[in-house]
Amino acid sequence: MAFTNRSSTTLLFALAFGLFIGAPIFTAVADYDPLLPVFEKWMNDTGKVYGNNTEKQHRFQVFKENYQFIESVKNQPGLTYTVGLNDFADLTNKEFLEKFAQSRTPKPSNESTRFKYANCESIPCSIDWRDNCAVTPIKDQAYCGSCWAFSAVAAIEGINKIKTGNLISLSEQELVDCDFRSSGCLGGWPHNAFQWVVENGGITTEEKYPYTSGATETQGTCDASKTSSHDVTISGFEFVPPYSESDLEKAVANQPVSIAIDASGSFHQFYSSGIFNGPCEADTFHLNHAVTIVGYGAENGIKYWIVKNSWGTSWGDSGYIKMQKDISNTAGLCGLAIKPAYPTK
């Protein structure tokens, strides 16, 4: 992201008369920090407003640390992607994960062993389900750990389009409020959401049951009058055999697939474009974020997965991330091949 520095005259005038957005951070020219205009422009671009000057000063310090991290990454060899400022630049990585990742990972239930794509031999070299109009626009889970619901809904939206020809934006809030196997804003598994949709007889639309937990930061009360609207149905779900990117490729060649990854670390927080090739935080992955693979391809000899996220369009490549495919670790990059699942219809 490019920034235009204000002239020193304008800056001194603004400092003297407190014309920066919100309360001025510094009261003396001697305190001037060269990153202050960058922070002020970022605040203006993102619409960030802080309640008081103390909070603003604290967020500026966090912003500076994140900015310095981003600048340092530019000089790291071997990375096939870029990082940059986004809406999360005033959050520490700990705060970021607390707000946007799952705070706890429930135990999976109702394990399925069937894999209907096992014998698929002829699959395309690349596929992008967005080109087949099987992917709704990027959504934003905001301040709720409901990634599991967004991942599940994206997969259901995809298979419904493939089977019926209708792309319908479905309700994540219904899952957050009503899926008793999951924990609302505290976390869940996409395959448990699939099971709930089966048992409920279907899922309603986003229009009928809109998403509110991003603003309230909590699970709502299940609205039975809305859950009775079964606008889209599925017959069940299946797991992709774990630790097999080749089997995952077979599944994605046929439909979008829900996966879980370890999204810890500032590299994920500030990913901007290109093919993400790590680093992931640890070899023993803590699967703390659910996303949806909507395709795969290759670029300059590097294979990648096309992954739909739920952190809004300001994050990543307009809300998407390309993650390196077919790496030596059988768990896949950041554990993406450990727990893939998809709905059946």
Automatic annotation (TrEMBL):
Cited InterPro entries:
Papain-like_cys_pep_sf (IPR038765), Pept_asp_AS (IPR025661), Pept_cys_AS (IPR000169), Pept_his_AS (IPR025660), Peptidase_C1A (IPR013128), Peptidase_C1A_C (IPR000668), Peptidase_C1A_papain-like (IPR039417), Prot_inhib_I29 (IPR013201)
* One of the record's GO molecular function terms: cysteine-type peptidase activity
Q: Where is the Cathepsin propeptide inhibitor domain?
A: 39-96
| Pfam families on file | Inhibitor_I29, Peptidase_C1
- Asked if the keyword Cytoplasm belongs to this entry, the reply reads no
Annotated ranges, domain Peptidase C1A papain C-terminal:
123-344
PROSITE patterns from the UniProt entry: THIOL_PROTEASE_ASN (PS00640), THIOL_PROTEASE_CYS (PS00139), THIOL_PROTEASE_HIS (PS00639)
State the coiled-coil residue ranges.
none
| SUPFAM superfamilies (alphabetical) | Cysteine proteinases
Instruction: Please give the start and end residues of each transmembrane region.
Output: none
What keywords would UniProt list here?
Answer: Disulfide bond, Hydrolase, Protease, Signal, Thiol protease
The record's annotation in Gene3D superfamilies points to: Cysteine proteinases
**Biological process according to GO:** proteolysis
Tell me the protein family, please: Belongs to the peptidase C1 family.
Q: What is this protein called?
A: Cysteine protease
Classification of source organism:
Eukaryota, Viridiplantae, Streptophyta, Embryophyta, Tracheophyta
